Amino acid sequence: MRAILAVIWPLLLSVGFLLLGNGIQGGLLGVRGELEHFSTNSMALVMAAYFAGMLLGAQIAPKLIARAGNVRVIAAMGFLLIMALQGYGLLPQVWFWILCRIITGIAMAGIYVATDSWLNKLSGDETRGQVVSAYMVMQMLGIIGAQALLNAADPSGMVLFTLAGLLVALGLLPFLLSGVQAPPYQAARRMSLGELYRLSPLGCAGMLLTGGVYSAMMGMASVWGTKSGLSLQQISTFIGAMYLGGLVLQYPLGWLSDRMERRRLVVALSAFGGILMLATAIVPMSFALHVAMALALGGIVNPVYGLLIAHTNDGLEPERMPGASSALLFLNGLGAVFGPLVTGQMMIRLGPPGFFYFIAILLLALAVYGIWRSLARPGAKRV
């Protein structure tokens, strides 16, 4: 594992800076939207637009990788991301934010597909869980750092959006200057959703459901915080806690998944997380307890996402990995599009606890589906 990390560290460093820049806008938009007096429905549409962009980006990324290669795709998507980040501050209007969020989603999808397939090809089945976990750890380090940077300037100004763009530009440098050999251009091959489902039903269902959970966490946590009367510092602490929990548990759970059946770990984590979120929605809690629940939620959802990627890629031929990454990202984006929209409606009808009810329902659904697949195909490597 150390030998692999010695090779891929420039890629991981780039991912950290890219997520540090992109992570600022997730929390910032929720706060800035409140300052601009955008309604909950409007903010739900803004947040959902990101994942609509990811759907589109997941479809076009394999073609772009086949034509131009991983490095050029990452660079081009990085430039698009910088443009979108500056656009939010230049024109704070709902329709323009929706457009910028779509562009942001396309850019991040291209970056994710290119990076996921690159890292999967550099790792084997016996180390993939740890490599994916290290990759996810760098993402969470970036997002956690972004929450701290939210307090660096006035959210009503342009400074934070400019800072986000500068950090993304910095993140492109290790990608572009790295000596790590990128996969061959001709390796990218599309994979249909039907083919992916036959390969890994749990991977498909899991990515669809975690897409909804992750989009609620990323897009609606700041909206939940403003509706709950939290300060900007409290909101950034709550969001940061979700990623800190994932940071702490990501690698240990990835290490564990390389030594046991990954599906059992997915089911256990999903069931535990669903029960915790249901309790959070029902039982009145102090802010400190909410932060503790955020730590637990992040420690469950972020590793589960990585486990599903590793589970699906186990045993895949290298030329099929970009297509699998694209199809997984499409399913994740499909679930994510509805996440903010449904969460927003549940918060309108049930108040702030609707945020936790939504997450609980999806995590429990994933646990039930995983148990059903285990009973349908006991002992199978992929279910």
Model description:
By secondary structure, this protein is mostly helical. It has a single domain (2-376), classed as MFS general substrate transporter like domains (Growth Hormone, Chain: A). Helix content is 82%, strand content 0%. It has 13 helices and no strands. The longest helix has 34 residues, at 2-35. 58% of the residues are buried. This is MFS transporter. It is found in: Membrane. GO terms for molecular function: transmembrane transporter activity.
Q: What features would you highlight for this structure?
A:
single chain, 383 residues, mainly alpha, Growth Hormone, Chain: A, 13 helices, 82% helix, transmembrane helix, transmembrane transporter activity
Question: Topology of this structure?
Answer:
Layout: H1 2-35, H2 40-68, H3 70-90, H4 94-122, H5 128-149, H6 159-177, H7 193-199, H8 201-227, H9 232-257, H10 262-282, H11 287-313, H12 321-350, H13 354-376
Helix pairs in contact: 1-3, 1-5, 1-6, 1-8, 2-3, 2-4, 2-8, 2-12, 3-4, 3-6, 4-12, 5-9, 5-11, 7-8, 8-9, 8-11, 8-12, 8-13, 9-11, 10-11, 10-13, 12-13
Short description:
It is built from 13 helices and no strands. With 383 residues, the chain is mainly α.
Mean pLDDT: 84
The largest sheet is: none
Q: Assembly state here?
A: single chain
Proportion of β residues? under 5%
CATH architecture: Up-down Bundle
CATH topology descriptor: Growth Hormone, Chain: A
What is the fourth-level CATH superfamily? MFS general substrate transporter like domains
Query: Uncertain spans, ≥5 residues at pLDDT below 50?
Result: none
- Classified by CATH, the class is Mainly Alpha
